[in-house]
Each structure stands twice: as structure tokens, then as C-alpha cells.
Design a protein that fits this description.
- The protein is mostly helical.
- The protein has helices at 2-11, 16-20, 29-41, 44-99, 107-126, 129-143, 145-157, 161-183, 187-196, 201-215, 220-227, 232-244, 247-304.
- It is elongated and about 95 Å long.
Amino acid sequence: QVLASLVNSVEGGKKLSQAMEDHPATFDDVFVNLVAVGEETGELGEVMGKLTDSLKWQDELVAQAKSIVIYPAFVGVVVLSVVLFMMIYVVPQMVDFIQEMGQELPIHTRALIGFSNFLVGNWYWVIPAPPLTFFLISWQAKRSARMRFRVDGWKLKFWYTGPILSKIILSRFASYFALLYSAGLDVLAALKISEDIAGNAVVADALEKITESITAGKSLSAGIESTGLFPPLVVRMVHMGESTGRLDVALSNVSYFYDREVNESIDKLKSMIEPAMTVVLGAIMAWIMLSVLGPIYDTISNIGV
């Protein structure tokens, strides 16, 4: 249906880019602007080829981002479910038997009993609290620009996954900026479009500040350095691109640099998650077993004496 609409619009006298503007859900700002530049320069075929490569790269990036979130979330839910089952169903049954022994319980056993009683008495709000809190924060972030800025800042600062997310966003920015600049857009126009597709309020604000610094007469590398988001190596690469007149090549190298960093970080994260979750679950199970079986063993030992 979209393609049929494009055919009708072009036959009606519109340019291809103008026809694409009528379908923002299918063609984003980058796509439309690049097609418009290709029409103006007569290099539409080359632009379409670059867009093809960009879409492949974006698909790989989305897959990487999902791999960061889905596996830890799944393992975390499994561990949390096991703990809740043990604390709410298994532990109370065993605790009744331990308390009937009438002996003084060690502190770790009392802590287990207290935690289990807390969950049993408050499960109706403890279990739905995390997803409800997440929903409320997401809902508020959509309504309030200030809240969205805070949430996006938390995402970038979150332990280990925050830096990975930051690299993914900055890699996408560098890739799109290089694509727009190499197609013929000026720096300010490319920055404006990149700002709209950043997907993170903190990064979009930093790109806006870069635009303001360039408007004030500073270079792109100086504006990038002032944000504090980019490492010194990236700043030097952009500065080199400005000096040699090959800014698009420099930005492509920046994108490659971030892609490599993201792949390495994701591989490290995947290798860390499974043993970390195993250690956490093992520690919880050891706490439960020690707290439950310890008093039983002491009682049996006393009977033997």
C-alpha cells in the first residue's frame, strides 16, 4: 500500500522524497532527507546503496541491544521466581518444624524467618511493586520532558549496561551523521537530524549544545569535546577529519570504533551474567539450607549426647 501510494504521488508530480514524507511511520527523517539530497545531486542510486548498508547496520545494532536486555532479564526473573517460591512456600513449612524444637535459633536463621514472614504477609504488594514502579516511571517519562531527561540519564549511568547503551547511541549518531554529511548536507543540518533520531534526551541535549557551539564559531571537534560524552580518541579523530576535509571518513571510523567497543562489552557481559547469577542463586540457597538444616543438625547432635 505504501509503495502504491508512492507511485501515485510521483505520477501526480511529487518528488520521491516528498512522497515519502507522507509516510513517516515507514520512512524516517534520515531516509527522507538523504533521498532528497540524492535527487538534488543526481546520485540517488549511491544514496540508496548507503541507506541499504545503514539499515543492515541498524538491524545488527538492534539485535545487539536486545541481547543485552533479554538474557539478563530472563535469568533475573527465573532467579527471583525461585527465591519467592522458596521464601513464601518452602521455608514457612520447614520453619514451623524448627520452631517446635524449642532451641535458641542462630541469627541467620532468625533473619531468614523474618524475611520469609515479611514476604508471606506482604506478597500482594511486594510482587507487583517492581513492574508497577517501572510502568509509572515510563508513563511519567512520556508525559514530562524533565522526567524523561532524568530517566535517560539513569540509563546511561546504570552499572555496566549504561556505558554499553551510550556507545550504541553514539555509534548510531556517528554512522547517521557520516551518512548525511557524505550525501551533501551541511554540518548543522546533519546535527539537527541526528538530534531528532538520538533516542535519548541526554544525548539529544548534548547534540543541541554542539550545534550552538558551532553556531558560535567553534569547530565540530571542540563542540564534541565540550559535551564530555566522547572519549579523547574520538575527539582527535573528528579533529583529524576536519583538518583533512574528510569528516565523513573520520565519522565512519568513529562508528567502527564504537561498534567494536560494543561487541567486546556485550561479549564480556554475556560471559559474566551466567556465573554471576549462579553465584547469587547459590548464595541464597546456601543461606536457606544453612538456616534450616543447621538447627536440625544441632538438635540431632544434642540428642546423641
